[in-house]
Amino acid sequence: MSQKALDLRRSIQIVRRRRILVGIVVALGILGGVAYTVVKPVMFTSTALIALTPPVSTAQPTTTTSGTDPYTATQEVVAGSNQVLVGALPDVRPAMSLIELRQDVQVASPVTDIISVSAKGKNAADAEATANAVAGSYILYVSSSHSAVGRVQAQLLEPATNATRPKPIERMIEFALLGGVAGALIGIIVALAIDRNDRRLRERDEIAKSIGIPVLASVPVAHPSAAAGWIRLFESYNPTATNAWQLRTALQQLGMARPGFGRPVRARNGSSSHDAGLASMYQGGRFSLTVLSLSSDPGALALGPQLAVFAASQEIPTLLVIGPQQDAAATATLRTACAAPPSEASIHHGLLRVTASEKGSVDTHPDAALVVVVAVVDGRAPKLPDLMRTNATVIGVSAGAATAEQLARAAVTAAADGQEITGILVADPEPTDQTTGRIPKLAGPGRRTLPNGLRGIVTEIKR
Q1: What are the two backbone dihedrals, phi and then psi, of residue 32, each rounded to the nearest 5 degrees?
Q2: What are 30-39's pLDDT values in tens digits?
Q3: What local confidence, expressed as pLDDT, does residue 277 receive?
Q4: For the purposes of burial, counting CB atoms within 10 Å of the CB of 270, is it exposed (0-12), middle (13-18) or buried (19 or more)?
Q5: pLDDT level of residue 328 (50, 70, 90 thresholds)
Q6: How would you write 386-405 as a 3-class SS string?
Q7: Residue 424, strand partner residues
Q8: Is 3 left (phi over 0), alpha (psi -120 to 50) or beta?
Q9: pTM score > 0.90 for this model?
Q10: Which residues contact residue 109 at a Cβ distance below 8 angstroms, ignoring those fewer than 6 apart?
Q11: Which of the residue ranges 269-278, 284-293, 430-439 would you say has the lowest mean pLDDT?
């Protein structure tokens, strides 16, 4: 039972995730139902009634399983036989074949000794003429000596008049609803089939387990498409309390959320290190971080800038560096935004600096306690460009944007370059994801977080 409940819950999550696809298929189903009512317009129906005189020997007729007596049931069969329908063909409207006539005519028995002949037509006159033609052909046939069931006394009780049809709008709504239901079922099946073959990682635990690295934080990200969007992010990014706590947790896991981190060290005479010309000295030292993402995942590109802006909002002097990239097009608009002069209206004015560099070595500015380097590599064949060495490296990835193989390639490439992956930042996490991705557990902030124990910022270009 628990396994079935889990499968149902996962199926619902898949449908919610692919709700746009399901919605499109539902819309197509509704349009298909409406189109069907246009191509196959509702037909008029008219009915003629025929009264039968049962033979004298039938005093107390028995009934069949359909509710009619055997005599009346036999006459229903005769009324719908080829002999009767062929005899009616000359008088039906419009002219049609025997097969078409059989499709438009229905014979039934509302009560014992009464036969009804209903016919369809595109207009009321055609439906009435066809029903009366079949009724007249039946009466003529059973009254003749050629009748296969002997002579039968039958007369027209009520001719076909006043043909009716359902209202077109009602029929259109009915078929639209049927098409929508069919489209929903097809859309759900297609969504489940697509997701079954989709190897992209969506949950935090899946992402963490794929390369054995914990998720440090997961936050929604901006998706700027132009330089102006990046500039607005630099100047006014203000995360919600929940997202701010996620980013603060990431800084803490990396060892940067200690009380006083980023504050200038005061000299013995009481003046700050800035006054003493020692701007490079900060409480907790200086820290540098590389945020590595894939060129096929544009959403993850915003993780580095958002983390830098948040650090600046915590009064940590921060420098955001857009270094040389394996795919220059992936960061083109971001690099353009870095060239814009800082705005006086920025809420982080003076604490956040942004720069773009074509070389591995960059002027890290003496006032920066934290340097965030943005790096983008190709997920299929990742290769790190010449980057400045940093204390730590994290992988940024959007939920549902990368496979385990792509993340593993990026991690192996970074490790081969001497930059071990410390953690993972997840962009735009799934709303239904209840996992944490916090495995394995990181060392506490009081311990050394990196095996090489690097301190400060090294700006040499790798060889």
Answers
A1: -65, -40
A2: 999 999 888 8
A3: 42
A4: exposed
A5: confident
A6: CCECCCEEEEEEECCCCEHH
A7: 215, 395
A8: alpha
A9: no
A10: 68, 72, 73, 75, 76, 115, 116
A11: 269-278
Q: Are strands 421-427 and 392-398 parallel, antiparallel or unpaired?
A: parallel
SS (H, E, C) 274-337: CCCCCCCCECCCCEEEEEEEECCCHHHHHHHHHHHHHHHHCCCCEEEEECCCCCHHHHHHHHHH
> Is 349 in contact with 312 (CB distance < 8 Å)?
no
Element housing 216 (H / E): strand 215-219
Residue linked to tokens 């802006």: 309
Average pLDDT of 92-97?
91
Return the bridge partners of 353, or none: 319
Report helix, strand and coil shares of the chain as percent, to nearest 5: 40, 20, 45
In this prediction, residue 442 carries a pLDDT of: 47
For 214-271, write each residue's pLDDT tens digit: 999 999 999 998 999 999 999 889 999 999 999 999 988 887 755 556 566 554 444 4
Residue 34 near residue 179, CB atoms below 8 Å: yes
Tokens describing residue 28: 């197509």
CA dihedral 327, 330, 335, 337 (to 10 degrees): 180
Tell me how far apart the alpha carbons of residues 198 and 185 are, in angstroms, rounded to a whole number. Answer: 20
d(CA 314, CA 249): 13
What is the predicted pLDDT for the residue at 349? 65
Asked if 305 and 320 touch (Cβ cutoff 8 Å), the reply is yes
Buried b or exposed e, range 61-88, using 16+ CB within 10 angstroms: eeeeeeebbebbbebbebbbbeebbebb
Roughly what angle, to the nearest 10 degrees, separates helices 241-254 and 303-313? 90
Q: Which DSSP state fits 343?
A: P
Tokens, residue 355? 């720069």
Residue whose structure tokens are 């359902």:
166
* Terminal-to-terminal C-alpha distance of the chain: 59
Q: Which two tokens stand for residue 348?
A: 């982080």
> So what's the pLDDT on residue 45?
92
Q: Domains in the chain, please, with CATH?
A: 2-40+167-196 (no CATH), 44-158 (3.30.70.1130), 204-427 (3.40.50)
Torsion of CA 207, 212, 213, 215, to 10 degrees: 40
Q: Which amino acid is at 250?
A: A
Which residues fall within 8 angstroms of residue 17, CB to CB, at 6 or more apart?
Answer: 191, 195, 202, 400, 430, 432
